[in-house]
Structures are given as C-alpha cells and as structure tokens.
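Suppose you are handed a protein chain with no further information: no name, no annotation, nothing but its sequence. What can you learn? This example shows the usual starting point.
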Amino acid sequence: SEGDPVLEREAAGAVRLRFGFADRPFALALVAEILRPAGEPACGEPASAELLEFAARIAASDASVLVLGETGTGKEGLARFIHARSRRAQGSFTAVNCAALPETMLEAILFGHRKGSFTGAASEGEGLFRAADGGTLLLDEIAEIPLPLQAKLLRALQEKEVLPVG
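A reasonable first move is to predict its three-dimensional structure. Written in structure tokens, the prediction is:
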C-alpha cells in the first residue's frame, strides 16, 4: 500500500507493520535490524548485503585491508565485522585514531622503541603493531600521519615486519 507506515494490532498481541513502496528501503533496514544476530551490522539494501558478503570473503584471507569512507560511514564497524570472521577473531581488536596521537611520538607508539632510544625511554616499548599481533589493528585517520611515516607504515604492512625506534 502507499502512504505512511501503518501499525495494526492483531489477535494474541501480534503486531503487523505495513509500508508503502517508497518506504521499502527503510522497512528492509528495520527488519534487518530486528532479526540480525548480536554483533552483526544491519543492512537493508542489496548493496550493503553485497559489501558484507565481500567483507566476509576478505576475512578468510590474511590480507591487510584499506577501508575508505567519510566520517560516520561505518568504517570501524566494517573492520570489526571482518575481524570477527577472521582467523584473528580470538585476538584483540585495537582501534587507534592516528590524528589524536602526538606527532613527535607517533613512530614509537606504532612500532615500539628500545630502551634509551629517546629522552624518557627508560624501558622498551612494545608498540601498537606488536601489541596487536594475533589480533587486528585498525588505524583510523591515517591520512593525518606525516608522509615519511606513511612510507614506513606501508613498508611494515608489505613486509609484515616492524622495526622499533632506536
């Protein structure tokens, strides 16, 4: 039927919602939200379902993944979905906003450091990459990282090797 959604009460407390054709995407998203298992993203559009199917295939691989999108589009949710279906699901999921990290300490925070490698380094620091070993490390806002460090980051991802500072 056309027009606004209609809520009807039926016998035995059942409720029926009827949506017009124009409200179909909303209705599908609502049904998906109600029926989805805990921890699963809801999707009511075919394109979203295709994206999740693709993400599940990616999760079966050992590939590093780049997720692009505007703020608020669900990049972290998609990363968590991939993590939950990967062989790394038993490991930790660590999300880091790179724009919030101090630029002067960024390399040591990401890759770790050796004792005495800089002022205040009284002991070794593990770094986020090594701390996330066996799990997933989500680096959000990587475009905010200085270009020379982005090159080191790319090398670490390609070679699967992390060299601590110092």
